[in-house]
Amino acid sequence: MFLNKKKIILVISVSSLIFFLIFNQVKSQDLRVVDGDTIHLNGEKIRFTGIDTPELKQTCLKDGVKDPCGVKAKQILNNKIGNNEVECISEGIDQYKRTLAECFVNNESLSSYLVRSGYAFAYRRYSKKFVPDEDYARINKIGMWSMEFDYPWDYRKSKKN
């Protein structure tokens, strides 16, 4: 009789756990921020479309002092995501086999947020979508727009030579 009570408690416990998991739609994401415009989400490498952020090793100058603007872009993205769920809309695959996507947290575009924060640029070569966000940051001297900097594409080109 005592053994049967243990079995009943075990069955009830397992059933309760299954019920909780199914009906509360527990969602888990495996997320890692690689840099300002690239994340790994559930095993998929995702590159944000339409923007470009400074490289991790890239620095800017603010009042003659080096500023780690590439690292800051990554930090701003990390802070914005926090513990929130990231949702992405795929737009294809690039030459490096990364998924190209626009990603959102609480229905806000992470790309738009980064550009308006002054730590990403509208990548006009591929899209004009974020030009108004860039204009806002530039006019208001937000983020890198308050510093001396190289555009990320120029920085990468200078490192190849």
The shape is: globular
Overall domain count: 1
Unreliable sequence segments = 16-26
How many strands in all? 10
What does this structure look like?
The chain is of the alpha+beta class and 161 residues long. The protein has one domain (30-151): Beta Barrel (OB fold (Dihydrolipoamide Acetyltransferase, E2P)). It contains five helices and ten strands; from the N terminus they run H-E-E-E-E-E-E-H-E-E-E-H-E-H-H. The chain has helices at 2-23, 69-81, 110-116, 131-139, 152-160, and strands at 31-35, 38-41, 44-48, 51-52, 60-62, 65-67, 86-93, 99-105, 108-109, 121-122. The strands form three sheets. Strands 1, 2, 3, 7, 8 and 9 form a six-stranded mixed β-sheet that branches. The protein has a two-stranded antiparallel sheet with strand order 4-10. Strands 5-6 form a two-stranded antiparallel ribbon. Strand 2 (38-41) and strand 3 (44-48) form a beta hairpin. The longest helix has 22 residues, at 2-23. Mean pLDDT is 88; it is low at 16-26.
Layout of helices and strands:
Elements: H1 2-23, E1 31-35, E2 38-41, E3 44-48, E4 51-52, E5 60-62, E6 65-67, H2 69-81, E7 86-93, E8 99-105, E9 108-109, H3 110-116, E10 121-122, H4 131-139, H5 152-160
Helix pairs in contact: 3-4
Annotation keywords:
six-stranded mixed sheet; globular; 5 helices; 37% helix; two-stranded antiparallel sheet; OB fold (Dihydrolipoamide Acetyltransferase, E2P); 161 residues; alpha+beta
